[in-house]
Amino acid sequence: MIEVQIVDDHRMIVESLSRLINETAIARVSKVYYDLAACREGLVNGLPGILLLDIGLPDGDGVSFCAEIRKRYPGLKIIMLTSYKEFSIAKRALHHGARGYILKNAESEEMLAGIETVSRGELFLCDEIDILLKEKENDDIVWLSDRESQILKYVADGYTTKEIADLIFREPDTVKFFRKNLLIKLNARNVAELIKKAYGMKLI
Hints:
Arc Repressor Mutant, subunit A; 2 domains; two-stranded antiparallel ribbon; Rossmann fold; 8 strands; six-stranded parallel beta sheet
């Protein structure tokens, strides 16, 4: 049995995924974490065979965390489990040591195949990401949606989250979500770095 631990702040996804895994004869879920801090503490007490790691977490970027814990535990096998199907994010995750990349909307068979494959020491990409990486193999462009581009321009102009929310007629939490996505997509630690990188990439 492959021991699996899950890091994801969406409790329904964690419960559904745990049930799926535990109902098979392939693996079992031993622990779940809802933020990076809890996972960081939990790993000190023992490593799983597979760590399923979300990217957008409340206390940080899962890709950066992947790089951090791979340095600390080189043998840990990590599968990014996420809704981000962005070339730049997937490429960065693999560069930082992830051994798998699976979208949350993947079929259950694909999810279990990923766990088995990575457990054997092989790389696993779900079909959508495998196709994406092959199509954009030599492409380093960061792709932004129209809304992301709009919010990025407002951020660069110095508007606050509340001011941006008023300008686009959305709730502040929605703007916070887009700002968080922009930090992840551009691999920026803070707003200053985000703006610097955005100008460098000619996104604004």
